[in-house]
Amino acid sequence: MPKVKINGEELEVPAGITVLQACELAGLEIPRFCYHERLSIAGNCRMCLVEVKPGPPKPQASCALPVGDKQEIFTNTPMVQKARNGVMEFLLINHPLDCPICDQGGECDLQDQAMAYGFDRSRYHENKRAVPDKELGPIVKTSMNRCIHCTRCIRFATEVAGIEELGATGRGESMEVTTYVRHTLQSELSGCIVDLCPVGALTSKPYAFEARSWELGKTESVDVMDAQGCNIRVDTRGAVVMRVLPRLNDDINEEWISDKTRHAVDGLRFQRLDRPYVRKQGKLAEATWAEAFAAIAAKLGNLEGGKVAAIAGDQCDAESMLALKDLMDALGSPNIDCRQDGAKLDGPRGSYIFNAGIRGIDQADAILLVGSNPRWEAPVLNARIRKRYLHGPCPIGSIGPAVDLTYPVERLGAGPASLRELVDGKLSFFEKLKAAKHPLVIVGMGAVARPDGAAVLAMARELVEKLSAVREDWNGFAVLHTAAARVGGLDLGLVPGEGGRDVEGILAGCEKGEISAVYLLAADEIDTKRLGKAFVIYQGHHGDAGAHRADVILPGAAYTEKNGTYVNTEGRVQQGFRASYPPGEAREDWAILRALSDRLGKRLPYDTLDQVRSRLVVVNRSFGAINEQQPGSWGPFGQGGSASDSPFVSPITNFFMTCPISRASRTMAECTASRGQAMAAE
Amino acid sequence: MSMITADPQDVPKVEHFAFTPENLEKAKALMANYPPGRQASAVIGVLDVAQRQHGWLPRAAMDEAAKLLDMAPIRVYEIATFYTMFQLKPKGRYLLQVCTTTPCWLRGSDAIMKACEEAVDGKTFSLQEVECLGACVNAPVVQINDDFYEDLDADSMKKVLDAFRRGETPKPGPQVDRQTSAPVGGPTTLKSE
Q1: Predicted complex ipTM exceeds 0.90
Q2: Is B8-82's fold the same as B94-174's?
Q3: CATH number of the domain located at residue range(s) B8-82 in this protein
């Protein structure tokens, strides 16, 4: 470990880090524009200059200089100050200084650092250069006059997002950051370049001129657009969610989030259910809570339990799912399911979580994707796989849809037959998996959400057991969910009880008239036409498919409007916090179920959120460990038998519209319009 | 205030570009200079081959080069826009690259520039002002396609241009009585045996 002296203070630092990182360890902030922890080092903004001894008698770019033993680093000498002042003056020569009309104002690196290093007037009398703005699609707004050529966006697109579309053309004063050919960025992570841009050259198009950063309330929360559980910060002004930004979490999303996570929130303003409705003479009419509850009580009061069923949606919090489960138990109904897509997952916990953890991807040395298109199902996780691919040799194979995942993939086949061959060791990829110390088998919903899903799951289990991929120090069996609520639902046992029906059974029962009442807890991804003549209670936040068919609508809260617990695909329990209140008469979901239970004479045993959460821990101990990944138990699961020949198909056909919120979002509609054709081609 | 952009807007649309078999051969030979997997290093050479074939570099040619070299098109655009030797717009049959850096300027490049400006018609001649061509000893210098024409003045420049216009190729090098960079009128030293 090299010993360095920083401003006279001795410090021992890890070998191989840069001078800039060493200074950060010493608690010193080095100004920078181009340097970013998660991107390659460019060293072109020159803002991070420091004085280093021994070395040439001139300032050095600390971001690109490795630390050496007995190095003396100075960050506060007159030379350093003068050099940084000079760099800042150069950067500002062509910068328009239009902060009052710039969306980055208030959270701009250049603005902040100009406070410390800027000169109070310009010595440059020539005209500033003018650069045409670029068209990068519905997410990213450009104002290229402001660009200082740090190249962070180019490096992000090339390295993390894996789309080589951004570049710097021209030279010297005519250098510009561009796609050259005008088109929308073909990435699901394009919004991240807005966060990375240290100036206002790239700003958020949907959020343009909407708000200033200092007038926003900031709430830490968890994303529900996919099952990865990305950590987000929800920025609100009054009751309106203005934007969503990523939060740092190295275990889950590092500091990236997908465009859907970031921009679907404008859907929270449209199509909202803000009061109860009851269907009268075939038409939904506005009602009070008491009337809605009365209508439900009149219907459910004299039904036997077996005629009632409940389906939980893909974005529900654990609290409301628990309340639903308890209510169904109280009504004596075993017909409950949280797997709208019909995924055949209900075994031990190890059979339905991403056991290796998202961090485990970094450790894996051979990856197999089964029936999964992670680029659409979990874009940030896909970027993590790409990071692993860039890090060093790691064969990646795929059985399933042929899609561009931004890294090379050896395609082994399309359906269960190929998986069978692989398990039997007939494909050469088996040897690669066998040779790996940490093989990772990622099973997507495309493989298990089908009638023969149990057989496919059994094959996948056979494979990992053959590979000895499930052992004390490593569990390479990883299920990649698409629904944020799924693992939580399975943890709470929202699967059919003894003699109960699953989603398919419930719908079939409705058609035949064997099920008389269905409770949809924000469940919109089912074929509502098949609900037949059943009495449908829809509790949710958007007027989507479920609400259209409902006989009684109970307005609930969206994920930004309630304190909720979510379990991500790796089985990590996380809590999101309320950023604003639900609109109108809408209420938190568990409280609605609790109130309804009282009206039905089956009062649930909790009155406060804390009591619900205590009950969560009673039902499943893993809810007691917040933010930790609880290992899943392993045991036999899946079902033998033959699988059909039909190929695995990813459940997502349009990445931008997968839930009621994103379907109501105008930004997502624009994204669909601008990238729809390209997606269809893929 | 001028608007800068590397992406020319007013160029004719070229839908399709394909290397001729000979040129493809040349490009492959250039790629063979580099180890396997590093074929992208041949990009400048390959672009030059494409430019010589087409006369200038349309985007279709850059895309074709990108495909051949297995690199992202944007990486080729970056290179093609960086080097001024790549012509991103159609040019005349002869590209007049007039050096106006100090030595040439002191020796009268203004007159050369004027003569060339008068000749430019976009079809036969195109004009480009360039920085030092490295032939200061023979200033002023104009590079016409691949050849240097040196020791020019307004008259000799016009003669050279007239010759090109007639379809002839005037002799490259000094346009005065001079052998390469040797003194005018023959050697002045080391004359004895």
Answers
A1: no
A2: no
A3: 1.10.10
